[in-house]
Fold:
Amino acid sequence: MPNDRAAFETVYFYDPVEGEYGFLSNYFEAGIAFNDRRYPSSEHAYQAAKAADRGMHDWLAASPTPQLAAVAGDALTAEQSRADWLAIRVPLMRQILRAKFTQHRDLLARLLATGERRLAELASGPSEANLFWSEVDGAGDNMLGRLLMELRSDLRNANHDIASMDRKADKGS
Structure:
């Protein structure tokens, strides 16, 4: 484990267009292919998956901005949401994040460049969603940051394995 103090610093992100780490936000507009459909951002894919009704799903998927998709998706009632939503939202987000970073090698390189630093979405208001996915004034589960760190570790190991195989192939082993 590195003893460099920078390894223990936290990388905060939220706004997709401000700062060096805006690309970590689900609001960052990097289109993804997910479940046989294209989405303008990971937020679009996540919020659309929440809808029980196909029409609402399609509307959320085509929402003009990720922020609007988030507001509309967060406003869905329990009746408008999938019955299994609370059980699937974290595994679903894990899959969506994997799609985002494996489909955009430039974003993957930037994620890996965060090293071992802690990642945390820093939200501004203490809503239920913010306290689950983010941190607000030092409180919250930071689930999005935790999933990004998990993904970073998985993809770093996968990249290391691929690089190792490439080196062996170059040597004729």
Observations:
- The radius of gyration is 17 Å.
- The chain is about 50% helix and 10% strand.
- The first strand starts at residue 10 and ends at 13.
- The beta strands are 10-13, 32-34, 37-39, 118-121.
